[in-house]
Amino acid sequence: MSAPTPATPSVTEANPASAVPPIAWALIVAMGVALGVVLLAVSARYGYHRDELYFRVAGRHLDWGYPDQPPLLPLLVRGVTALFGDSLIMLRLPADLASAAGVVIAGLTAREMGGGRRAQLLTAAAYAVCPFVAASGHTFYTATMDLFLCTTLVWLVVRWVRTRDQRMLLAVGAVTALAANVKYLVVFLIAAIVAGLLINGPRDFLRRPALAVGAAVAVIAVIPGLIWQARHGWPQLEMARAIAEDGAFAGRPGFLPFQVLLTGVVLSWLWIYGLWRLFRSHELAPYRFLGYAYLLLIVVFLVTAGKPYYLSGFWAALWAAGAVEVERRGAPRGAGWVVSAPAYVMTGVVTVALTLPVYPVDWLARTPQPYINADSAETVGWREFAAEVARVYRALPAADRSLTTIVAGNYGQAGALDRYGPALGLPRAYSGHNGFWYFGRPADTDGPTIFVGPEGEDGAAYLHRFWTDVTVAGRFDNGVDLDSQEQGKPVWVCRGHRASWTVLWPQFKQLG
């Protein structure tokens, strides 16, 4: 069913506060708590994700920037570990809380668009059972906080459109400041929203003094990070190119299909319906700028080979638009089952089965989860990885061990050795990957180097660029037949430096 398309009303007229329904606090908070409890219950299963191991070390090397990210998450992880030590539950608690709060923000977005009790529940529940929300909420990395902050930012803009409360523009500036210190991607979201508002209105935001103040707050907050980037040759741009070339999520051909998969195949209908109704509904006309913003970003990220979850900050608002229209007009003929309780329950069960660590670890390789959510495989085997490196280290002659350097091929390996190596008697691990290259180089010694990562004849040829003698002395096996990035990686013992570390270290720098 579809409603007639009347002439677009003036979107400069705010809806009176009295016209909006009450907030269904009990329902949307209950949905948020439900997600939070599930995430908390499984937070300590398996182990660290490679990004979390990286952030632990980055937190001890605080700076205004890093080659692959702004400074906020390493700072937060530094605070958590300082207060609670190396507790995986506490490390992931901020991600748990942000995901649960995001459910509430989603419900509030529906309310700002005129949604009552049902629309708020449909939106909050869609967010709660979203596969990407659950997967990112289980692990504390940049996408987790970026999703929450961008969802909050969109809600604040929607609320400003309804109320014209200038405090919302100040809050937008503050949230943008935080988001820009998690990921610079928020700049694209803000630019798309501004473009949507200029296309559709309301355009009077440009005349609001609070906008200038909020923008100043956001700009001031990112200046230190931009100065760091400029001083180091803008490595973030090189990192963006590396991500684009990586082809994750099937690259450009997979960009739109993964919008559906990441939001839940069944419930993706609700946000697609919401996007369509933003351009058709008289009542949603003030929020049509969201539709333009979303479509603009699709074009931008298709051109730049962005990842599909870069659009996740808009999903709650699109779900909200769809839910509001379902509440007002009913679901289109034949689609009522999509917004039924069984559809939500089914989506929730599938989400848990495919994204969260609910299986015994030795079953994981025999489930579809590692193929659908590859990050789950990256949380298994780090202790065993460090133990294999320690075995190779202990096999060296005693005279060599005090002079041995350990170099890891990527930041996950280096982070794991930092976390578990000291208890195994290992010296500090180094890596040229991303931020680790900036954390310092090895001391110049004549001792051997244990190098983890390069494989086969190509790996041997690579290592021979730096040493005269390279030998495979071990190989990592996670013990559960799980095809992770580290599974089967050789552990090399390299001797005969061709130059000092001072000369060699610049050649180990890599971004990706």
Q: In words, what does this structure look like?
A:
With 512 residues, the chain is mostly helical. A 5-stranded mixed sheet has the order 2-1-3-5-4. Helix 4 crosses helix 15 (315-329), helix 7 packs antiparallel against helix 8 (166-180) and helix 18 packs across helix 20 (411-420). The chain contains 23 helices and 5 strands. It has helices at 25-42, 50-58, 72-84, 88-112, 117-128, 131-138, 142-163, 166-180, 186-200, 209-231, 235-246, 255-263, 268-278, 288-304, 315-329, 341-355, 369-372, 382-394, 398-401, 411-420, 435-438, 456-464, 501-504, and strands spanning 405-408, 429-431, 449-452, 467-475, 490-497. Strand 1, helix 20 (411-420) and strand 2 form a beta-alpha-beta unit. It folds into 2 domains: 22-330 and 339-355, no CATH class; 382-508, no CATH class. The protein is globular and about 80 Å long.
Number of E strands:
5
SSE ordering? HHHHHHHHHHHHHHHHHHHEHEHEHEEH
Q: Estimate the strand proportion.
A: 5-15%
- Considering DSSP H and I runs of 4 or more, what fraction of the residues is helical? 55-70%
Mean pLDDT: 92
Short description:
The chain is mainly alpha-helical and 512 residues long. Helices cover 56% and strands 5% of the residues. It contains 23 helices and five strands.
